[in-house]
Every structure is written in structure tokens, then in C-alpha cells.
Amino acid sequence: MQGYEFFLIIDNSLSDEEAADVVKKYQEIVTENGGTVTSSKLWGRRKLAYLVNKKQFAIYYIIYFSAPSTVLALLKDKAAFDEFVLRSLPIKCDDLEKEITFLQTISEDPKINVNLYLDSKKGN
Known about the structure:
Oligomer: single chain
Structural class: alpha+beta
Mean pLDDT: 83
Largest sheet: 4 strands, antiparallel
Order of helices and strands: EHEEHEHH
Strand content: 35-45%
Radius of gyration: 14 Å
Number of domains: 1
CATH class: Alpha Beta
Strand order of the largest sheet: 2-3-1-4
Number of helices: 4
Helix content: 40-55%
Shape: globular
């Protein structure tokens, strides 16, 4: 099975519990289709670089999982029609543990922001 990370930008109007329920739906899709969720991380509420669906703020989540490639298509289709997901980004990971470790590093240091993380992905 291939490792993936699935980045979700969720509508800010949801409470933390409702946003967690949205993410849980995506985790269930992975597990119901033969995959395993390795890690899930809330990045919190952040200001968007530009308006998305007339929203200035959003909730950022990232899910790490291993699954057959067919699961990725299911996740992308679900996210495209989910009214609470503003944007999603699936990324193929060669080394899932390395990605999770990097995420924990940037999450613990408040001086490092999301842009550094996204810049690190340009090489993939």
C-alpha cells in the first residue's frame, strides 16, 4: 500500500467538534476500503491567503494514511462535493514516518509556519 497525506481546509463556521466529525468521515473512508490511518493532526484556525467561497478564515487538518490508490479517488470525489471542505490536497508520500516527524517539528515551533511546510512539498 502507498502512503498518502490528505490536507483539508474546512469551513471556519463549524465548531471544533463538527470539524472533527468531517475529518472522521474521511478517516472512515480510508479504513472501510482497506487502508490504515497513521496520524491525523489539527493545525487550527488560520487566515486564508485569499478569499475562498467568501471565507477569510478556515480550519486546517492533515491526515496521514496508507491505502490502495483507489481510496485516493474516493477521498477526492467526496471532498469535491462536501459543502464544508473549502479545499483539499492529496499528496503521495514516499516516507510516511518522515513526513509525520516533520509535521510534528513544525507544529511544535510557532516560528515555523505553513508556508515552510508547503515549500518543502514542491520537490515531491
